[in-house]
Specification:
about 210 residues; alpha+beta; 4 helices; about 20% helix
Length: about 210
C-alpha cells in the first residue's frame, strides 16, 4: 500500500494529570508478562518463556475504561484524516498499558495479522487492525533507551541505506505525546537502559482493505 505518511504525531496533548491517573490506575491492577501472537493465554513452559523473551520482554496491564477511550479517540480520528489515510475503522481493542523496565524491549514487529480475526459472535469477528496508537505516559527525561523506531524499507524502494529507512520517533518523547500509524508498519522499542518507560497502546479495527 502506497502512503505518504508512515506515522502522525501530537506532542504533549494529554495532560500530565491524565497520564499520571492512567499510570496509578494501571499499577493498581494485576500485571502479566507481555506475549506475542501464537502463544495465546495458555501456561508457558520455561523454554517457551525464554524464547518469547528473545523477541519481547515487558510487563503489561489490560484496560477497557470508557474515560480512557474518550480521551484518545479524537486523536485517532484526527491523525487518520490529517495523514491522508482515511481508513475505515469502528472499534478499538483493549488498551495495553506497558511497562518497560531495565533491559526490557520489544524487537521488530508489526501489529497487523495475516488474516482477519476469527471470533464468531463478537464485534471483532472478520476485522483487522488498521491503526495503531502509542501514548507516551512517561517523559523521555525519566528513562534512557526505550526508543520507538520505525522501519520503512518495505514501503519505499528509494530508501537505500539504514540511515534512510530507520526513523526514531523523537517527536513523542515529551510526556503526553501520541503517535498513530498504520498497523502494518514495522517498528520496535529498544531496550531501556535506566528508569521505566510507561506507554499506552491501542489498536483500532475495521473491515479488511479491498
Amino acid at each position: 500500500m502506497n502512503i505518504s505518511n508512515y506515522y502522525w504525531y501530537f506532542s504533549s496533548v494529554l495532560t500530565p494529570k491524565f497520564c499520571d491517573d492512567v499510570i496509578a490506575y494501571a499499577n493498581s491492577q494485576e500485571e502479566t508478562m507481555a506475549r506475542t501472537g501464537g502463544y495465546g493465554d495458555r501456561k508457558l513452559n520455561k523454554q517457551e518463556v525464554k524464547d518469547l523473551k528473545r523477541k519481547r520482554n515487558s510487563d503489561l496491564v489490560w484496560l477497557n475504561d470508557t474515560w480512557i477511550y474518550k480521551e484518545l479517540h479524537p486523536y485517532v480520528h484526527e491523525a487518520n484524516r490529517q495523514a491522508g489515510w482515511n481508513f475505515e475503522w469502528d472499534r478499538s481493542e483493549s488498551c495495553q498499558f506497558t511497562k518497560y523496565k531495565h533491559n526490557q524491549y520489544y524487537d521488530w514487529h508489526c501489529d497487523g495479522w495475516d488474516k482477519p480475526y476469527d471470533k464468531p459472535n463478537t464485534e471483532d469477528h472478520g476485522k483487522i487492525r488498521k491503526l495503531s496508537m502509542t501514548c507516551q505516559l512517561t517523559d523521555g527525561s525519566e528513562y534512557t533507551g526505550g526508543e520507538l523506531e520505525f522501519d520503512f524499507r518495505n514501503y519505499d524502494p528509494h530508501m537505500r541505506d539504514e540511515s534512510q529507512h530507520l526513523r526514531r520517533a523523537k517527536e513523542i518523547l515529551p510526556k503526553g505525546s501520541i503517535i498513530v500509524f498504520p498497523s502494518f508498519v514495522w517498528h520496535r522499542v529498544k531496550p531501556v537502559t535506566s528508569g521505566t518507560r510507561y506507554s499506552l497502546v491501542v489498536w483500532h479495527l475495521g473491515r479488511p482493505f479491498k
